[in-house]
Amino acid sequence: MARRETRIVMAREVLQISLKKIVVDYDFRNNTGQDVTTEVAFPVPPYENEFAENNVSYRSFQNFHLWVDDKPIRYESEAKATLNGKDVTALLNEDHIDIPTFGHYDDSTVDANQYMQILVPDFTRLPKAEQSRLYKEGLFEDLSGAAFGRWTVHLQYHWTQTFPAHSTVHIRHEYTPVVGGMLGMPVKALQLALTPKSALTDTKSWNYSGAAHISGFCPKPELLQGMINRLSESKNPEVDSMFIPLWVDFILTSANTWKRPIEDFTLIVERPKPEHDGKVFVSFCSPANGEVEKTDVNLFQVHLTNFVPASELHIGFFEVPQAKAAQPAAKK
Fold first, then answer.
1. Has residue 329 been placed in a domain?
2. Is residue 114 part of a domain?
3. Average pLDDT, integer, range 169-193
4. CB atoms closer than 10 angstroms to residue 74
5. Which residue segment(s) compose the domain that 102 sits in?
6. Which residue, 97, 132, 150, sits at the end of a domain?
7. What is the secondary structure of 87-107 as a DSSP string?
8. Using an 8 Å Cβ cutoff, are 17 and 1 in contact?
9. Residue 227 domain-assigned?
10. 107: burial class by Cβ within 10 Å (0-12, 13-18, 19+)?
11. What is the DSSP track for 73-88?
């Protein structure tokens, strides 16, 4: 992380988040009479080898792009790996295993028989003895003959930036985020999430069902009830009793590296089109409990002034199956 730089003000931040892209626009202002040169660091949330997307470039942030005053700028990246809280970066670097991509893990290819292939070239080129050692260390797990990286990635981008005296510098970057997700969650999780944890006698069910996870997105009761109603009206209730939760995280508190507060902050969340026949619901804990305004059918906005981030963003996108069509009225 960059050191604290209190001479530079974040005058404006516009953060746009969707499942496919994150775009951040900043205006940094130097109010002093001297140029300030410092290292700027942008950390992404730690992630593991669990993805909704197969594309390696997506899940390892390899498509990160940066502009300063509308001109593309070169940057550097730093990736570290931890396993059960222990730094294992050196172990992976010794074997030239790419940390952000879990050894260039790729499960997006199929063989001649149309079977999915899992490729981990950084692992398979190693001698058998070294492969065995990595398995023993717990860095990889053998899943049906494929090596599956088990570490957590801590990745940040950084570059040297000069902020001229009495001037404003515009910085923009964009990338495709790692999307967290689950294969499906039962309607019981929604029903339990409607009940305050303090009122439950069976807290194990609250945690086990996924209600605790859903509550982490600060869903409003009417949103939960709407999802429950839609699931109960599913065209195939025996099949479609599950909903699909996806989420995108963003580190907000890194803004506190600069002179606080952020003078003008805007968060824009875009609801995606459903992958299947259904509807996508959006929920997140609004920064500083700011009012969430629906500016378009699929756009949600929070605008704050003099904002000091106290927590990170955790934005949920929940796809619920299509409700069954209304039956035509019987003819008299």
1. no
2. yes
3. 87
4. 6
5. 89-150
6. 150
7. E-HHHHHHTT--TTTTTT-EE
8. no
9. yes
10. middle
11. ---EEEEEEEETTEE-
Instruction: Say whether both 211 and 314 belong to one domain.
Output: yes
Residue ending a domain, choose from 110, 132, 150: 150
Half-sphere exposure of 320 (CA within 13 A, CB side): 23
Q: Give the pLDDT confidence of 217-238 residue by residue, as tens digits.
A: 999 999 999 998 888 876 555 5
Q: How confident is the model at residue 321 (pLDDT cuts 50, 70, 90)?
A: confident
Q: For the chain, what is the domain count?
A: 2
Both 244 and 275 in a single domain?
A: yes
Do residues 82 and 176 share a domain?
A: yes
Nearby residues of 35 by Cβ (< 8 Å), 6 or more positions away: 162, 163, 164, 165
Q: pLDDT, tens digit, for every residue of 10-56?
A: 999 999 999 999 999 999 999 999 999 999 999 999 988 875 455 55
Do 49 and 148 touch, CB atoms closer than 8 A? yes
**pLDDT value of position 110:** 53
- Contact call for residues 242 and 276 (beta carbons, < 8 A): no
Is the pLDDT reported for residue 326 higher than 50? no
Least confident of 182-186, 239-243, 261-265, 266-270: 239-243
Run of H or E residues at 279: strand 278-284
255 near 2, Cβ under 8 Å?
A: no
Pair (136, 222) in one structural domain: no
pLDDT averaged over every residue in the chain: 87
* In-domain check, residue 327: no
Q: Which of 238, 207, 244, 209 is nearest to 320 (CA)?
A: 244
Answer whether 84's CB lies under 8 Å from 191's CB. no
277 and 161 part of one domain: yes
C-alpha angle 220-224-228 in degrees, rounded to nearest 5: 165
- What average pLDDT does this structure show over 257-268? 97
Q: Is 158 exposed, middle or buried (0-12, 13-18, 19+ CB in 10 A)?
A: middle
Beta bridge partners of 243: 185
